[in-house]
Request: fold
Amino acid sequence: MKSILFMLIWAVLAPVAYAQMNTQQPEGGPGKMTASDIDAVVSAVAQLIETHYVDKAAGGRISSDFRKLSASGKYARLNDKAALSEELSKDLRKISNDGHLYVQGKKAVADNQNWEQIEKKAEKKYNYGFTRVEILDDDIAYIRITEFMHPKRSMQTAVAAMKLVENSDNLIVDLRGNGGGYPGIMEYILNHYFEGEPIELSTTKSSNGGSQVTFTSDLIYGKLRTGTPLYVLIDQKTASAAEYFAYTLQAFKKAVIVGRASAGGANRNEYFDLPAGLRMSISVASPVNPVTQTNWEGKGVIPDVVSDDPERKAVELIRAARKK
Reply:
């Protein structure tokens, strides 16, 4: 077994991370929150959901239920940013059953450090999400991606990873624990498995009534992998953009999905600033796959092969296919 690249295997503070796999909420700054800060945060949360949630009817219900809950005064005693963020997120997930609906604070940083600075530090620390690239025995390549990070800063690493494995006929992409991220890198890797005229991958409908169609692109820097075996590993913490990757490849019959059903977070989220230096993630759009005419929201991506040891299983499947 020849290791090409091995680094730490977990990335934190994703720009678009799925809240159910990020249950520990970020800590606040050194100061405590005032009563007026708490009131302002709670009020803003309800209003933002009402205004921006992808499904207007559901958003109205979620906002109404949250207002009733907050009227009990349960948040008034939570004068610490971490504690308030955690409690709000827990309640919002329970009310909505939507893992993209949560409140977040800055983790172990000074209050004057912005979110982009935090992202950049995490990207460098965790090698832009590509934490292991390896050539296994029997011409099998393996890539571990813990998060799809900002494409502007991560693209060179993604290109290098795909170039390193391009001479292996079989590829395993490990997305276990990957809570999502930006779509750019995910789409770049997807493009290696499509050729010819642009193909529609999804139509994403937004809360404001608009829609956006995502197509394949021939913009890759290496060999196409069309027709070569691909195995994607997932688990219950695979979410959001990582689920999009697995679901799309499965729908177009480009990959075998191995592992356990994923988290079920199909809706796309955006962040909105809250008072006191907090921010909130809200589902603002929902993708529809042209093959299935639906998505994986609430259901997760269902693996083709169920396994508690998907890496070993994928290798077994590749070797068995060769013997046929």
About this structure: The chain has a mean pLDDT of 87. The first strand starts at residue 2 and ends at 6. The chain has one domain: 1-324.
